[in-house]
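Hi L., both proteins are below.
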Amino acid sequence: MEVAAEWVQFEIPYILQVEDSFEGNKAARFRSSVEGVPAELQFKKEAREGEEGERPGMMFGQVEGDRLGNVSYTKVKVGFDRQLLDTLPDDLDDDFEAVKEGGPTKWLKNLDGREGRIIRAAVDHVNQFLEVYRASLGYYWIRGVSPSEVVYFMRATVSENGDTYDHGTMYPGNALTPGSSTIDKEAHDTIEARLDTEHKVPITISLRLDAQDKLDLGEYRLAVITAGTMFEAFLKDGLKDLMTAQGMPDDKIESVFVDDGDYTSITTLAKETVPKTLHFDFEATDEFEAWDEKTREMRNRVVHEGYVPSEEEARAAYEAAADVVEFLTDKMIERHEKLRD
């Protein structure tokens, strides 16, 4: 079958104030282009149904801040012609698994194959539209979506002679955890212990998870900033603990990090304070070099220049920060052990 077009349909958790264009109304459809690949976008507004068919809340309409689409939502169709299909390598394989044997729903385990790339392209086009729509109308609560948030995608292929082949519902995601699974005793005890303390979660853990969340959501600027903050918070806490263990007075410790109301730069802490406190040449390590180039410099570009990093740049920034945290954690443990001896 000679393919003429591919269509992807899914739901987004906002009601977009554009005219419905699924059935006719071609003038209300939008054309977009991402990395030179064009697409057609069609929208259809829907209301959530409550119990016994009753619509909740505001019935059918937009509620400011409704990020989950609990009141209303929008269906979107994204159509691609041969221009996208011709960019896909011929040898792309898809990794499928039936969610239910004999059922129409298939679990697409990753987005690396042909189907996955078409879905990813559709989400990219919709996210570009949402970014422009948000800025044009000032709707601060609207953001892009990720494939793992959408979950269900309807796919259709149109042949050159006009025949349509319905692929059924695609279900992408890297892992499917059974709903019947439960945490083990160790995880249960960890949660219980943290609930019983004043500081429930260490800031480094919170920031690490925040950075991972931003990467998954495609919010790459925030991912880079959070990765940089994660390392800085970790480093300051770790150095303060070591200085305390060495018997340094609190006021002297504070002066290392804040001088006359000005915070000491993270570069100074990394290049000067770490060697003095941990007794090794941090700047000469691969971990320092990776953090300096991929995290610190990228964060500065984002913060000071408004640079928008790519997914690869954001992931590299996070991974470099996570690696250096792990590296310095081992060094700090070693130093604490020497101080106790």
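That was the first. Here is the second:
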Amino acid sequence: MWEELILPPATPNSLDVESCRLEHTPDENSRERMETPPNSNPDSWCSLSKDLWRSILERLSAAELSRAACVCSMWNSIASESQLQINAFKAPWKLKEVVGRPSSGSFWHDNSLGRFAISHKLERSDTMAGLAVKYQVHVTDIRRLNNMMSDHGIYSRERLLIPVIQPEILVNGTCYIELDIYAKREVAVLYLEGAPDGKSSYLTNSVPEKTKRRLLDSMKRSLQADDGTVEYYLSISNGNLRNAFAQFSHDLGWEQGHRTS
């Protein structure tokens, strides 16, 4: 008696699965084609013209432009162009013009409000509190920007730099890149009335006799010392008020300590 063989029903999946798998397995060349996007070849990017890259990079902000300069030599050459950097520096604040060149190209990388300042020519009646009210800033902010230890510094300077807190004041304005020897910083200065005369002592390394006299008078009031003492500490500090005050205070503390001992 023959035993009946029971076979599973035929289905489409019961075909030669192994042969089908082999048929659809990609070879090395096709796998490489699938893994490599069609436009990812670096050579295809380099084939773009320099003018086209410039039109792309000029849309970046100042901070983004500085980062783009690190991508490749072509981007670096474009992102380092002075006019491109100036335009990126001006764009957020809608400045009309920036006059002058900074001592370092890294100046253009930061175009925050802290990079700008208003030039205020000092008058005899000016006080720190009065200037703070006029420009709606804090006295401490004016001191910090101008490298001042106390309000007495106002008597030894021709002008003060005022922080910019309202960006609207920069719209259609002209800023001048200046290195202030008293504030010891390089900033983009906005003149609300006219333009710099180019002869101001705060833009040069030499201190005229009139300014030196004002420095002496200011230190005499602050230190309660005679002319000779003040001139000595100014000379050993190369005219730097902060260093002169610090050295005088150090020597005074040393002298008082020896008197009590």
